[in-house]
Amino acid sequence: MVGEFGLSFDWMNEDGKVILIEKAVRTIPYGFLGVLFSVYLSQLGLGAFLIGVVLALTVASSAAYTLVASIFADRLGRKRTLIFFALTDALAGAFLFSSDSLWAPIVAGIVGNMTVGAGEVGPFLTLEQAILPGTSDTRRRTLGFSVYNLIGYVSSSAGALLVGLPQYIGSGIAGYRPLFLGYLASGLLGAYLYSRLSKRVEQEKTAWASISVLSEASKPIVRRLSALFALDSFGGGFIGISILSYYFYARYSLQLGSLGLLFAGTQIITAISFLVAERIARQIGLLKTMVYTHIPSNLLLAVIPFVASAPIAVGLLLSRQSLSQMDVPTRQSYLMSVVPEADRTPAAGFTNASRSVAQTFSPSLAGYAIATLWLGSPFVIAGGLKVAYDLSLYKIFHRVKPPQESNITG
User: Fold this and answer.
1) Which of 1, 150, 267, 269 is least crowded, fewest Cβ atoms below 10 Å from its Cβ?
2) Nearest 5°: CA angle at 86, between 75 and 109?
3) How far apart, in whole angstroms, are the C-alpha atoms of residue 22 and residue 4?
4) pLDDT tens-place string over residues 130-152
5) Which of 229, 235, 227 minimizes the C-alpha distance to 365?
6) pTM of the predicted model, to two decimals?
């Protein structure tokens, strides 16, 4: 299996391998933070709406960081920027580790880059997405993004398994302290790993990156994709990991240990799907892979709140996860393929920033919908919005093919 998918990594240079290792280091704590964060806030006394507000603030800070990285990173240095943001994760971990007061998770959510939504967003993703195409040849680009996301989800699943740890250690801050310390340590280790990157990861320092410095050919593509990705992310924000965790906690009384197992399972299934996505994309193309797998996954999502049995709901969620993220590596590869190399950082930055900004509003709206409408309403809203995204994406871009797909017909 390893040889079949080309996972010996001899096709990737040392910078690419550093990026993959750091992806694992970073997403292990993101895995347990995504599951426990909303539950932890609930245990500190916050209701559904206020939990949504805190999650929205967390996503908003990530959006702001993404914009900063998009505009300044190529000028200041990608390596230096990545080190800085790794240290912000370490600082957020220090806040969580130091106090069990309500201010600590709120400030940590704003300062750090923890993932509480639907998939990782933020400055790390933007810069690593721009660096990865240069670590292997064009033929391996989609495989590189598939492995990158696979490692992230496998590591996140390992982190999710750790959320049951507090019940064996003690209550309150004593139980959560080892996990928060792990988050702090991951930030410090990430800063060290980024310091090992070579000068090859840097882009020529010409001007401050902005949408205005994109080539004329790239501007309409980036604008349209940014708008479409924003719609998808806005819908996804209604059913981010923390919202899903709160739903299964409130609907079926699943405790952290069970939630950890559940979301570890979803991450493993998602990770496997990335390699399958790369194989499918070779046959039918990146865009069709994105759309054809995403629509059925969103229909499964919308059905989940209508079942009364926890096992059936879990089964639907796992089925949905086997398809829902196949568009991630294909989306990243598609964007990097249809813009020239000089446009990759601003293109990645502005599309990711649009995703982050759009997702800023979703968690608080999801909390409001749960509090005033129905516990399962975020699933239906998210499913409808994401299907609208799929149909719009295909209608607008089905004629825009990456250069490497010139031999794919249809």
Assistant:
1) 1
2) 110
3) 25
4) 888 888 777 777 788 888 888 88
5) 235
6) 0.72
